[in-house]
Design brief:
This protein has 200 residues and is mainly α. It has 2 domains: 67 residues, Tetratricopeptide repeat domain (Serine Threonine Protein Phosphatase 5, Tetratricopeptide repeat, Alpha Horseshoe), CATH 1.25.40; 91 residues, Serine Threonine Protein Phosphatase 5, Tetratricopeptide repeat, CATH 1.25.40. Helix 4 packs parallel to helix 6, helix 7 packs antiparallel against helix 8 and helix 8 runs parallel beside helix 10. The longest helix is centred in the N-terminal third of the chain and has 20 residues.
């Protein structure tokens, strides 16, 4: 009898933990975590490479507070990193609805449009809007805008933006500097003449 009771207790504990980890109500109890706590937990999961668990936390955050721009941004970033550009774009649009002119959401939606071959005019407008309040994101936004210009064949303007971004990026920030280098290589590749007989 005691073994049966312990088994039932273990099962009830497992069900409770599973429900808590997915932000669902169980037996009338509300989610114990705030949207911000779900985002922090999701970020922790991401840092450990646990993307599915991170996405589940971000989804719990937006279910709990659909007006939380940072929650939508986190979910969109996860969808983008998984190559789910349509879902990422939808999440970034919801972030912008919650917080118009949010620089991270505007920049990242511009990146989605680039990745999906979307409207470059909209992508440029979003990046320009993000640039107005970019703060520490400014080098990233300049890189996005440069990528848009490269796609449009505006190579000199793209190079000038990359010069600005490099000047504003701390030397120790290898992640941004590596991205800027890759974008600059895109200018070089786009500027090379196509071999004879091959259309560019």
């Amino acid at each position: 009898m005691r073994g049966l009771a312990l088994g039932a207790l273990a099962l009830a504990s497992a069900v409770l933990l599973a429900a808590c980890s997915h932000g669902q109500r169980l037996g009338g109890y509300r989610d114990a975590l705030s949207p911000a706590e779900h985002v922090r937990l999701g970020s922790s999961y991401e840092a450990q490479g646990l993307r599915a668990e991170a996405a589940a936390q971000y989804r719990a955050a937006v279910r709990s507070d659909p007006g939380c721009a940072e929650c939508w941004l986190a979910l969109g970033n996860t969808e983008f990193s998984e190559g789910r550009f349509k879902k990422a774009g939808a999440a970034f649009r919801k972030a912008l609805k919650a917080s118009p002119h949010h620089p991270g959401a505007a920049n990242n939606l511009a990146m989605v449009l680039l990745a999906r071959g979307g409207d470059l005019r909209e992508a440029e407008a979003l990046a320009q809007d993000a640039l107005k309040n970019a703060g520490a994101l400014r080098p990233y936004v300049l890189d996005t805008l440069a990528a848009i210009y490269i796609r449009e064949g505006r190579l000199a303007e793209a190079a000038a933006l990359l010069d600005l971004a490099e000047a504003e990026t701390p030397e120790a920030d290898r992640l941004v500097r590596d991205q800027l280098r890759k974008t600059r290589e895109s200018i070089t590749a786009a500027d090379k003449p196509a071999p004879e007989g091959i259309a560019k």
